[in-house]
Design brief:
Strands 5, 20, 21, 22, 23, 24 and 25 form a seven-stranded antiparallel beta sheet that branches. A six-stranded antiparallel beta barrel has the order 13-14-15-18-17-16. A six-stranded antiparallel barrel has the order 6-7-8-11-10-9. The chain has helices spanning about 5-15, 105-115, 150, 290-300, 320-325, 345-350, 370-380, and strands spanning about 30-35, 35-40, 45-50, 55, 70, 115-125, 130-140, 145, 155-160, 165-175, 180-185, 195, 205-210, 220-235, 240-250, 260, 265-275, 285, 305-310, 310-315, 335-340, 360, 365, 385-390, 395-405, 405-410. The protein folds into two domains: about 5-75 and about 305-410, Pdz3 Domain, CATH 2.30.42; about 80-300, Thrombin, subunit H, CATH 2.40.10. Helix content is about 15%, strand content about 40%. The chain contains seven helices and 26 strands.
């Protein structure tokens, strides 16, 4: 690589917080800024930052220069199961029937779901701009609330307003910024709890409804409708990557973050989290199936964990001759993934894997691309000893036993 290429690789590595960048990713963040919520209240401008995240879409990333790290965002989490009950069993809202024409009945869905939606206002520790505003939804009758982690990031105090106007102080139970989810707790009994659906059943074209504290405009939430525009979207943010997102054209605005995306049955199928800043009608929600295991773990006060190999990797076939020489890759190796950096206290480094070695097999599974290795680690377990086969710098075949480590956070 040239010096310029090396610098760009380092920049990309920093921007993805050492997480693997998928080949063919459709979205890349050129810049991420806080979306400003401004409202004129009693002659004062009330400003809220960072809600929701605003995504600037540019051309897809050239993975020949993007250094990917195997801190797999899609890895399974170590979840703490809830006794006898899961969040889906705690719903108290009714299931809504579609209209005679099979369409979404907005009023009926709103009547069922709106009582579970709360407005969130936070004060930041540094006091800059007075904090922020967002949305959440109640998932248990005793007052557990789901929202985005970025809504409550750096909050020194969190206040929640229920649908009937009641104000309550909320405590942060736990958060996972790597999947942008948080669980709060408010005092209460017999509170309305949202019904969680199955995003696996969602199809492109399904009608949806978004409810939230858009722009902090008033005491009642803003309701918008639209359709599911796409599934399985991925967004590369500064410091993290979100995957398995539902794309919708239902208007999502600053203040909507953490609010529910709801189907025609009145079931929550996603957590609204981001908007595309240079487009109209492109919003994103974390699919509920992807969010559910993380929510269940956060409810217990624990942070999910995922397996970690601890290597920065890229596809060997994507490297030019200069890069191959820099990493001392054995001549003639054309498939597999090359180790371009090792996490100092990571599992791979401890086991003796080396920069420039090309991984061709992981725990008996053939490895031809970054995504092969990402998937293999994702499907493994924390603490498990796996055999990694590599082509060494001198062309010899090495088989190295690696005890997988872990990192906190479920990943995107």
């Amino acid at each position: 690589m040239t010096d310029a290429t090396e610098a760009q690789s380092a920049d990309i590595l920093d921007s993805v917080d050492r997480e693997s960048a998928p080949r063919g990713s459709r979205f890349f963040v050129g810049a991420v800024i806080g979306a400003v919520v401004g409202a004129l209240v009693a002659g004062l401008i009330v400003v809220s930052l960072g809600d929701p995240q605003r995504i600037y879409v540019t051309e897809k990333v050239d993975t020949t220069q993007a250094v990917a790290d195997l801190l797999d965002n899609q890895a399974p989490v170590t979840a703490v199961a809830l006794d006898a009950e899961t969040v889906s069993d705690l719903a108290t809202t009714p299931e809504v029937e579609k209209t005679d024409a099979g369409r979404l009945d907005v009023k009926a869905v709103l009547a069922a779901v709106a009582p579970t939606v709360v407005q969130i206002e936070v004060s930041s520790e540094d006091g800059i701009f007075g904090g922020g505003q967002g949305t959440g939804f109640i998932i248990s009758s005793d007052g557990q609330v789901v929202t985005n982690a970025h809504v409550v990031e750096g909050a020194s105090s969190i206040n929640v307003m229920l649908s009937d106007g009641t104000l309550k102080t909320a405590e942060l139970v736990q958060q996972d910024p790597t999947r942008d989810l948080a669980v709060l707790k408010i005092e209460g009994e017999n509170l309305p709890a949202a019904r969680l659906g199955r995003s696996a059943d969602v199809e492109v074209g399904d009608e949806v409804l978004a409810i939230g504290n858009a722009l902090g405009l008033g005491d009642t939430p803003t309701v918008t409708t639209g359709i599911v525009s796409a599934l399985e979207r991925e967004l590369q943010l500064t410091g993290s990557r979100l995957t398995r997102l539902i794309q919708t054209d239902a208007a999502i605005n600053p203040g909507n973050s953490g609010g529910p995306l709801v189907n025609a049955k009145g079931e929550v199928i996603g957590v609204n989290t981001a908007i595309a800043g240079n487009a109209e009608g492109i919003g994103f929600a974390i699919s509920i199936d992807h969010a559910r295991p993380v929510i269940e773990t956060l409810q217990t006060g624990e942070v999910p964990k995922r397996p970690l190999l601890g290597v920065n990797i890229t596809d060997v076939e994507m490297l030019d001759d200069t890069a191959r020489e820099q990493y001392n890759i054995y001549e003639g190796v054309e498939t597999g993934v090359v180790i371009v950096a090792l996490v100092e206290d990571g599992a791979a480094n401890a086991a003796g894997l080396k920069v420039g070695e090309v991984v061709t097999e992981f725990d008996g599974q053939e490895i031809e691309s970054v995504q092969d290795l990402v998937g293999a680690v994702r499907d493994s377990e924390i603490g498990r000893t796996v055999r990694v086969e590599v082509v060494a710098n001198d062309g010899s075949i090495r088989k190295v036993d690696v005890e997988l480590g872990f990192t906190e956070g479920a990943g995107g």
